[in-house]
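Design a sequence for this backbone.
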């Protein structure tokens, strides 16, 4: 299936990150090894790479000039750190401090960072990019998405299987330097990798919104 962001909520940008691969490898090399997912904050070299004139340009095209990176994670599947993830929606955001605001909750702490589930409309106005450092053929745990499921709002856990049955499943293969961009609320999943070596992906959420009542994005 030839996915487009406008119709399906996800699209592959072939080689869009290739000019930045060396710098991304340098960032990854400075991070702890053998950890499945590392939530990233305060890394100046990465923040520069995610700006509007670099990897953030696609988010800017979709969200406008106020788009900025609000959360970043490095996922690394290896034989030592390998996992599968069932169908789900991303529903939480990272913020600087807890401020109790109607409609925001529950709250959680992930890797020492404060997260909260906002009103789903906040998620619906976000986009996510996945920047691939390694090849992702069928046996290296490609992202799976349910095309156009981002239009269905917040989906109850019990209804996810029927949504995937209705929308179908698309496999997001990639080569090093490719970017996948998708609507943040899209239903997605991935299997464990069947390959030796790495499957490293920088995943970055972008938003053009300001949060209410003193809540502030954690950012990168």
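Sequence:
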């Amino acid at each position: 299936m030839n996915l487009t962001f406008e119709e399906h909520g996800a699209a592959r940008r072939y080689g869009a990150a290739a000019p930045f691969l060396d710098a991304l490898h340098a960032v990854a090399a400075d991070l702890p090894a053998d950890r499945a997912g590392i939530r990233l904050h305060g890394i100046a070299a990465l923040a520069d790479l995610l700006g509007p004139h670099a990897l953030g340009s696609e988010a800017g095209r979709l969200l406008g000039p106020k788009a900025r990176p609000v959360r970043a994670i490095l996922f690394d599947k290896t034989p030592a750190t390998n996992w599968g993830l069932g169908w789900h929606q991303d529903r939480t955001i990272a913020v600087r401090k807890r401020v109790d605001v109607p409609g925001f909750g529950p709250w959680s702490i992930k890797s020492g960072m404060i997260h909260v589930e906002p009103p789903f409309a906040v998620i619906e106005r976000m986009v996510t990019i996945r920047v691939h450092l390694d090849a992702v053929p069928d046996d290296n745990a490609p992202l799976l998405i349910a095309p156009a499921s981002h239009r269905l709002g917040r989906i109850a856990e019990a209804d996810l299987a029927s949504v995937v049955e209705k929308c179908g499943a698309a496999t997001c293969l990639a080569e090093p330097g490719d970017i996948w961009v998708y609507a943040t609320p899209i239903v997605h999943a991935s299997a464990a990798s069947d390959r030796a070596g790495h499957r490293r992906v920088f995943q970055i959420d972008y938003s053009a919104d300001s949060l209410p009542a003193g809540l502030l994005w954690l950012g990168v």
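The chain has a mean pLDDT of 95.
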